[in-house]
Amino acid sequence: MKLYHRDAIEGAVGLDGNALAAVEAGFAALGRGEVVQPPILSMAIEEANGEVDVKTAHIRGAERFAIKVSPGFFDNPKLGLPSLNGLMLVFSARTGLVEAVLFDEGYLTQVRTALAGAIAAKQLSRENSRRVTVLGAGEQAERQVQALRLVRDLDSVDVWARRREAAEGYAERMRAMGLRVTVHDDVAEACTAADIIVTTTPSHLPLLHARDLPAGVHVTAMGSDSAQKRELDASVLIRADAFVCDSRAQSEGNGELKAFEGGEVPFKVHELGRVIAEGQRLRLSEDTLTVCDLTGTGVQDTAIANFALAQLVSG
């Protein structure tokens, strides 16, 4: 068994085309019905404002599968500690023996989440998309833009965050990447000229409404990953010409389909894996409005863990 720490993993895996292809292949396998993916195991540790999620999946025919343990303790910054942590255990799919422990401290989750956003945009946004609006100013807000640049020729970013100083700091970091960045105090204003909108917040109340959406925009929502979180008003989902999620069951329990809890969903729900596997074309015109809800799936974790271990061994 090998133990790899974050420094080595970061040196081997980045936001590049090869990592994107690995995660996209995992989604496609899920869409073809070639994945065993149990429900998320989630546990709240309320007295410490914490939660722990365990995700896993097996891609049939793959040599290995991964189990990810992902703690989030959201008061940690007050203690000078990161909010997110975790590791991935990689097992042989033939013997069940542990082959490696990837003590990545949540890094691979950040990478595969960003790549999923890029894959959604690749499938659903206009090919000539150049301007992205980001709601939120944390680490994933940065990585989403970095990953988007693998699939779209972005040149401009509009950002909104609850704290203006956080948005200004984010803008400085994005400008260092050669992007034009505008900070906004209002969500609607930030979205006015967007080709792509990405929501990256832990909000418990909807931030984005149908009235905020320009024609033909693509929306990727990736912040809602638990029963308490919501970023999109139901009007956004209803207005969309095509609604896609990584997992319908997870979107209904943890994601944006919670808006219709207890009632019938009044539109067709597509899953990203099937869109990829079947070559579905859901954008029918420049004015088609698309929405993708990403809650994070076990197949993404197995895909990125297998990719990471292959890079580490070959390197």
UniProtKB/TrEMBL annotation:
It comes from the Bacteria. SUPFAM superfamilies: NAD(P)-binding Rossmann-fold domains. Gene3D superfamilies: NAD(P)-binding Rossmann-like Domain, ornithine cyclodeaminase, domain 1. GO terms for cellular component: cytoplasm. InterPro entries: NAD(P)-bd_dom_sf, ODC_Mu_crystall, ODC_N. Signal peptide: none annotated. PANTHER family: KETIMINE REDUCTASE MU-CRYSTALLIN (PTHR13812). NCBIfam families: PRK08291.1. This is Ornithine cyclodeaminase. It comes from Halomonas daqiaonensis.
